[in-house]
Each structure stands twice: as C-alpha cells, then as structure tokens.
Amino acid sequence: xxxxxxxxxxxxxxxxxxxxxxxxxxxxxxxxxxxxxxxxxxxxxxxxxxxxxxxxxxxxxxxxxxxxxxxxxxxxxxxxxxxxxxxxxxxxxxxxxxxxxxxxxxxxxxxxxxxxxxxxxxxxxxxxxxxxxxxxxxxxxxxxxxxxxxxxxxxxxxxxxxxxxxxxxxxxxxxxxxxxxxxxxxxxxxxxxxxxxxxxxxxxxxxxxxxxxxxxxxxxxxxxxxxxxxxxxxxxxxxxxxxxxxxxxxxxxxxxxxxxxxxxxxxxxxxxxxxxxxxxxxxxxxxxxxxxxxxxxxxxxxxxxxxxxxxxxxxxxxxxxxxxxxx
Length: 327
Description:
By secondary structure, the protein is of the alpha+beta class.
C-alpha cells in the first residue's frame, strides 16, 4: 500500500459523527497525522475534511484490490483490516490507521489487497474531489493569476523590444539583440537569493510579492525612456529597466511557487500544471497585445501596456491577502 500502512498501532475508537454523510472538525487531528497533509493550516484541513465520506464495509469485503487504480484515501474509524501483499507477511490496520493517501495525487495501481476483518467503518476521500479542491484553492488561483500578469508583462516587453532594437534608433543586428537579452538573465539570477531568504520567512512572502509587482510597474519608466532618443543615455536607461524588470518577474515567480507548493508539497505536479498553464496563457496574451500596441502606438504604447500587467497583478495580490494570512 503506502508507507503509512506501517502505522498499524492500536488507537482508541475515533468519534463517529451522528450524520454519516458529514465530517466535522473532530477529524482535523486525524488528518494532521497524515504525511500528505503535514504542515497544512487548520483552514486547509477543514476544506479537506468537507470532502470526506463515511463508508461501512462488511466482514471479509475487499476494501481495495491489488492492481486496481487508486482513487480513494482511507482512514479506519472502527474495526480492523488486513493488508495482504504477495510474498509478504500480512499486516493488520486498526482504528486510526490510514492508507491510500498517494491515490489523492495519482492513479498508480494499488500494491496490496486490504480486507475488512469484521465490520469496518472508514472515512474516505475521493481523488476527483481532492483534485477539484486543488483547482479551486484560493491561494493557487490568485497566485496563478499574479504569475499570468508577471509573465504577460515579460512577454509583452521581449516581443516588442526586438522591434525597438532593430529599428533606426539602435540598428542592432540579431547577434546584438541576442547579447542584449543576456542582460535580462543577470537580473533574473539576482532574484534567486531573495527567494531563498523568503523561504525562511514565509510571512514576508505576501508583502514581498506586492513590492516586486510595484517595482515591476516602475521599471517601465526607464524602459520607456529607452526609446526617447537620448543617445547613449537611452541605452543605459533601457538596460537598468531590463535588469529591474527581469529581477521582479523572476522574484515574484519564485515567491508564487513557494506559496503554492506549501499548500500541498506532495501534489506539486498537479499544482504546477494549474500554475504554469495560467502563467503561459498570460504570456500569450502579453505577446499578442504588445505587438498590437507597438504597431499602433509605438514604443510608448508597448511599455504602457506592459506596465498595465503588474498593475492588474497588484489587484490580484490584494485579493490574495486574506487567503494567505488566514490561520
């Protein structure tokens, strides 16, 4: 089954709600013991508890069968069950034991049979409901939208700056433009150290995100002046703006990932799918509207559109506050 199956020590009979279709807050202590949910806040545990159902299994019935796709997570509330693996000694699970937690994040085949010994009462959580919880998690939703705004701004800039650099003002070759892009890489690298520091101070993630978005919007002032025909000064301002812009985009991205991965560390693949898909959708929008803005209003229009993305991101950032600061 899973490593949790080894936790077969005896437990006192867990409380059973009078309404078998509902699971109350008295399950939070049980859920806290599951490694998959370790470190989650009470708020997140309450949301998971709402997905749970109570099921009864008759004596001798097979609760899960080896080889079947895993779709449910089980916590034994009353009774005991036996875990049978081919070629291994059977293992007994008593009230309070749990198994199948990895079924919440993938559909890998069950590795053993679990058979009820006498009547068994179990709490179950289905993978479909758990996946829906991940998709509707407020912090994941807002952080994905913040990422979409950051990457939208990034894509808007890098789509249109090639038009500026290859135009009459600079006359850069393709090689020159490629070398200029390396400037942005330097800015992105500087943000990694800040991300590691914030991992040790999670309470600073929310204000740091706001600062990154505000500075991202401000970076378009020197970037905009990069098209102002000020000679060498324009190029210097453009480089300064690019360094700041890339550092802010990458910094916000690192913080976003820290926040969403803390929601459920062992479900990173599913969290990443939602997050990255939303982020790249924002990038596609940024690239498209940036090209249109440059065609109609030139470099000034393109930079204003790029700056609008982090301003929108600040609204999403404000909306995320109560979800990230709740206990």
